[in-house]
Amino acid sequence: MAHVRTYNPRVRVGNWKEDVTLEEETLKNFILQKDRGQLTVQKEGDLRQNILKPVSLSVSQDGFLHFGDTVMLVNSGGGEHEQRGSCVLSIIADSSCITSQSDSNSWLICFIICDGEVLRYDQSFALRTTAGFAGELFLASDHKTFLKCAKKSRLQELSLVDEFDFLCWWKVIYFDPQERLENEGYPVQVNSKVLISHCKTNQCLAALGNHILW
């Protein structure tokens, strides 16, 4: 009995059955997620493909902005106290945002009153993302609190919501304060500098130079 070998390299020790079963289940889950397109690399590829997809903006025939037009909000930058390039209003999207489908840097003026009606200064309207992958979400905001505010600037934050309410109401204000009263009620011209103010909080959309990503 002293010369009998009780162990050799082919002998399985420990929880070998559990390890084999776990490897098989892991492989099955991987194949299942791959077939469903739920892998992280597949989600990021889908997100990248949709983000880089071009969006057709509306072309104005009379030089004015209309309800239903697809527009892009751009901050031209520059100014007396700060020199920086222009930037576009957009959101930060990653693979976790794909299910909500909320990434787009183009906004659709909705709340259509009638076809062809122009948007006027101090008139309430709503901004929502384009249809399709963007999800048709409304741009909303509210008063800042200790628990709810922008992470870097500590100002009131913007959010995209699927339900339209008073928090989604905005209005266009004439840029020059000296001529603001005279232009109240006049049509908004395209490609012009304006202020977009939130109806509830009376705060304007802003792109702060020390809080932009690129």
UniProtKB/TrEMBL annotation:
InterPro entries, per database record: CF161 (IPR055325), MIR_dom_sf (IPR036300)
Cross-referenced Pfam families: CFAP161 (PF24569)
GO cellular component term of the entry, any: motile cilium
Matching SUPFAM superfamilies: MIR domain
Signal peptide extent: none
Membrane-spanning intervals of the chain: none
GO biological process, one term: cilium assembly
Name assigned to this protein: Cilia- and flagella-associated protein 161-like
Species the sequence originates in: Sinocyclocheilus grahami
Annotated gene: cfap161
